[in-house]
Amino acid sequence: MLPEVTAVRYVTPLREGGSMPGLVEGDDHRVWVAKWVGAAQGRKALVAEVLAGEIGRRLGLRVPELRRLHLDPVLARSEPDQQVQDQLRASGGLNLGMAFVSGALGFDPLCFEVDPREAGRIVWFDALVGNVDRSWRNPNLLVDGGGLWLVDHGACLIFHHHWPGAAAWTRRPFDAGDHALLRFGPDVAAADRELGPLVTDDLLLEAAALVPDEWLADEPGFDCPDAVREAYAAQLAARAAGPRDWLPEVPA
């Protein structure tokens, strides 16, 4: 289970993207980026955030710490924007907290350089989880002195929006045509040799185990949250097993 934190103060909305996350102060005296269960994307976006993010972390990529974030909707009273208030009130209870990376800058592919090995690892990971939200228009990458941080994985794992057709997704090619790191010559072949063997059943089940029961309960076609976790792990295991012809061909 992910560690828990309770929001004690709502700081400000982050007016980026459709989910409109916010900054909150936790009872641990740290600042967290809150992803709301009451946002338009709903709980499946939070499932994708946890599962994809924790897979990335286990593959050695830099993903900010994640927490189960508890919110008392009374904190909405400090927010003057009615739309944001409504979203907070709809998100009482369990949400997702992502550690705020203080001092980090948003990644701009025209302003920063990325090593082809690291670029390849990130493109490979995005291809594995089907991340369609890492384009040059919206990289969802942060930069600090230690390198790149990967954030915002709510658009991954699109298959979970239609489980009856999920099996076809395991062979779906990944389109990297507008990927934010394409211009750096990502060495996807080297990343495949390095990361492919790491995607084991144990790794996938370990990451899936961190998704809260509350976001998996009552999923149509499944008897219990553990059955949903096993389905996620099976999907990703089948994709990783090969042949990995879904990997993008990146020009040298």
Radius of gyration: 18 Å
Describe the strand arrangement of the main beta sheet, using strand numbers.
1-2-3-5-4
Indicate the mean pLDDT. 94
Q: What class do helices, strands and sheet pairing give?
A: alpha+beta
In total, how many domains does the architecture comprise? 2
Can you walk me through this structure?
With 252 residues, the protein is of the alpha+beta class. It folds into 2 domains: 4-99, no CATH class; 105-241, no CATH class. The chain is built from 6 helices and 8 strands, in the order βββαβαββαββααα. The protein has helices at residues 43-58, 82-89, 116-129, 188-195, 201-208, 225-241, and strands at residues 4-13, 22-26, 31-35, 66-71, 93-99, 105-106, 141-144, 147-150. The strands form 2 sheets. It has a 5-stranded mixed β-barrel with strand order 1-2-3-5-4. Strand 2 (22-26) and strand 3 form a beta hairpin. Helix 1 crosses helix 5 (201-208) and helix 3 crosses helix 4 (188-195). It is globular and about 55 Å long. The mean pLDDT is 94.
Question: What distinguishing features does this structure have?
Answer:
alpha+beta; about 30% helix; globular; about 250 residues; 6 helices; single chain; 3-stranded antiparallel beta sheet; 2 domains; 5-stranded mixed β-barrel
Write a brief structural summary.
This protein has 252 residues and is of the alpha+beta class. It is built from 6 helices and 8 strands.
